[in-house]
Amino acid sequence: MTGIGAAFKLEPKYPEVPYEEKARLFAEIKADARYDDYLYGCYECGICVAACPSARYYDFSPRRIAQAAAREDVELIFEQIQEDIWDCSQCFSCLRCPRGNNPGGIITIMREVAVNNGLDSAREALKGYTRIIYKIMSTGTQVSPDMLQADAFPDWGPTVAATSENLELWRRALPPDTHHTTKTGWQISTKTLVELYLIWHKTGALDLISELDEGLHSLLEEVMEDLLEEEGYEL
Amino acid sequence: MTIPVELVNGPGRKNKKEFTFSEEHAPEDFHDHLWELEAAGELVVQRVPEPYLEVPVKYGRTKKVPIGQTWHHKSCGQCGHIPGYSTSIFWVNRKLGIEYNDPTDQTSCTAWNYYASATSNQAAQACVAMRNFAAAYESDHFPIIHCGTSFGHYKEVRHEILTNAKLRAEVREILASMGKPLVMPEEMIHYSEWFHAMRHDIAKHQVLDFSKIAVTVHPACHYYKLVEGDAIYDPEVYGGQRTAIVTGLATALGAEVRDYSTWFDCCGFGFRHILVQRDFSRSFATQRKIKRMKEEADPDVTLTHDTGCVTTLDKSQFAAKAQDKDFATIPVLSEAQFAALAMGAHPFLVCQLHWHAADYKPLLEKMGIDHEKAWAEFEEQCGRLERNEAKYLTWEDVDSAPVEAAR
Ligand code: SF4
Ligand code: SF4
């Protein structure tokens, strides 16, 4: 479409994806139990945008997210899933919304749907992030002291190099007994880890990793099954 | 000490409608639901152990903060990358003679990963939270949560568990398969609320004069923006117009709290951004927060009360300085480390400031702490470990270190 008409009716940006598929994804978003709590229509006041850190640095707007959802604009929502949602900082400053909306919360749900369905945007956004998923799911703590490596955080200055050079010694110098670890944030008992693995299995959280990264899924499954078997659990 | 609302009298303030403490606009009190479900035998409510202190939260309600018998729900980022944060929390408890539990039967809330990658779901997140609460209950200690994101996320989980019967049933069944009951604490307590409630006791144990120390405060988004009714708002601090958290403690310790215009902005952490897209975090933290604080308030230190905020505000400054040699840095501490220093804690053996990036030495000098001497003491203690005279440093080692000489 060209000329004036284009200003009134935009072509879908992802014509290769059938409308039905986009509608299915939106239905999955709406089916989340939290959705009704997160959206009450939109005044278009822009208060959320004024509070939003990501709106300052990216071509991103929580108002557009709330509006697309309120208008049930299936095409635009799909576009946002592919292009916008990973810009959000999940700070929830947009809860200032006078309408009671939670655009950041809608984005959380949209992200979950993107991951669940193995969409390109999720794969792209989480490139380089898989080692963190591995860490949290397999050890029960998200970041560990041994992640502080100068080549991973060159922008954090010389403290990182000093920490990694002295890591083992400096961890032993910490007075709380639980803090002497280098591979986890603190010491976690085996029984606790077993219970965490059972949660990942029983809630389907482990399964959804397979949509995102089959290799990571196999690795996690193996680590978890080994420990669960050792501890006498059959899945 | 009362902090008048005029202290935050920015240029546009006159036109702003002031928030009044009233039940009229208050959201539902979650306790009503909690007691109903307890009465129906749906869950166990873990009571706040006595003795406790009562603090005001938004909408004129109060919240019970336990003094002791606490179960410390630690934070990944604090323990992993800013260990002086959690160590200071424990040290202050010990200094005040308070009994606590530092459990190994605790996992991360896993919310950092959830907000970064969404590689989880509502049921898994709720199960992780409720498993931790059950573990606290089994140990007969009350959860006190170190991380702002864990605290905010758990407040959301509480809402979901209380209002969603299907989720409740699913979580109950999974916990039962591990032999655990479904337990909800009577209050969700962030450690900074404990510091706020205990601020006058802490001030009684103060050994350093902080009256010449100027601070700015960054309130953590997930502390007061998520489930906003459940955060400390005190009519005596900013007239109740902003959360009193951190500011209340800083002023109780005699420091001067200075205002700046971007106090409501987040720190730039972004969850996934801090790990894989740090150009955003760095720009936001330095341009919107540190630079503004410096220009508008010129503090000696900025204080905050969350893992992500300390990390982002502290670590982002190196690159800004490397790019612009005139970029003026500000040291970043948690208010727990600030309080510990006020009470005479060792800057390295307890507060572990050598894990921080922005230059903190001028601050220590202004506090009257000889950091060179203190570092030599830290190295001496590490030498004992290297010579295999001890495997680990203990609380006793830290308490017996010549902290006095460091001043
Ligand atoms: S949660 Fe996302 S959309 Fe909301 S203010 Fe923060 S960055 Fe913006
Ligand atoms: S603040 Fe709320 S009502 Fe206003 S534009 Fe944003 S979502 Fe819409």
Automatic annotation (TrEMBL), chain A:
Keywords (alphabetical) are: 4Fe-4S, Iron, Iron-sulfur, Metal-binding, Oxidoreductase
Sequence ranges assigned to domain 4Fe-4S ferredoxin-type in this UniProt record: 31-63
Q: Which domain of life is it from?
A: Bacteria
**Name used for this protein in its record:** 4Fe-4S dicluster domain-containing protein
Q: Extract the InterPro entries matched here.
A: 4Fe4S_Fe-S-bd, 4Fe4S_Fe_S_CS, HdrC_iron-sulfur_subunit, Helical_ferredxn
Q: Which SUPFAM superfamilies match?
A: alpha-helical ferredoxin (SSF46548)
Query: Keyword Ribosomal protein: yes or no?
Result: no
Is the keyword Cytoplasm assigned to this protein?
Answer: no
Q: Pfam families of this UniProt entry?
A: Fer4_8
UniProtKB/TrEMBL annotation, chain B:
Q: Which residues cross the membrane?
A: none
Does this UniProt record's set of keywords contain Oxidoreductase?
yes
What is the top-level taxon of the source organism? Bacteria
List, for all copies, the residue spans of the domain called Cysteine-rich: 215-314
The record's section on PANTHER family has: COB--COM HETERODISULFIDE REDUCTASE SUBUNIT B 1 (PTHR42947)
What Gene3D superfamilies does the entry give?
Answer: 1.20.1050.140
Protein's name in the database: Heterodisulfide reductase-related iron-sulfur binding cluster
Organism whose genome encodes this protein = Paraconexibacter antarcticus
Keywords from the named record: Oxidoreductase
